[in-house]
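Service request form, structural biology core

Requester: graduate student, group of Dr. S.
Request type: structure prediction, single chain
Budget code: on file
Notes: please return the result as structure tokens.

Sequence provided:
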Amino acid sequence: MKKLLKIKNLTLEMTRRCNYTCPHCMRGESQNYDLSIETINKLFDNEEFTLVEVEDIFITGGEPFYNPEAFLYLIEKILNFNVQVKDFGCIVNGSIYEEKVMKSLEKLLLKGVNVKLFTNFDQYHFFEDSVVAKLRQYEFYEYRKANINNDLLYRFGRAKANDLGDVFLTAEQEEFFYRYNHSYMRFWQDKDYLLVRDLYVTAKGTFGNLVTYNADYEMIDSMCVRSIVNDSLFDDAIIKLENLSNFISYDKYERDKKVKILKK
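Core staff response, request fulfilled:
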């Protein structure tokens, strides 16, 4: 019998391609990988499970608008498959405008999904005025002005190569990444559903149980080693027969732990 799956936090790399080479980027150099339609299909429905609910979907990259076909397909899949989604977020760099994607995001908004698309404007990012003018026509788009404190940057990827960020803070961040992220999945069972708290899917189609994705591609790939298309989500999984209240309290416990570690 197929399992009904609920996900608390689903993060999808829409692509690893990007048209910027920001010196502070924690991801590192761009890679020629795009999230595939096949991966999206398998994530929603396969021989093992049917996805019925996601509390929060976050789209990352690369520059997500470099893969508009998969972006559109994902939104249409949510709408047509009747998956319940509470929040849908995405960060873009403000240099590309994809009207079809923006119109589809409006459909999600009308369905009651809390949609947020945003761009950070700081000393490292440059944007196209004409593109941002088009993006600002949509109520779910926002741009955030900030001056980045170089000492507090995640010292991974290109930031490390450019000697940006605090070495000691980075050591704690790296320790947290490897201590709390896993290649195997952790599930909770609540009545007829299986719940997973954190699922990260890369543009390569691999997945892992990532509590945080503040890392470079090499670190992420070390935890995301199995394929959504070819492997089982439940291989080596830890399934706890606990109710939803345990699931939520455990989540708060992990969050509090993270804050404590990073504030040492």
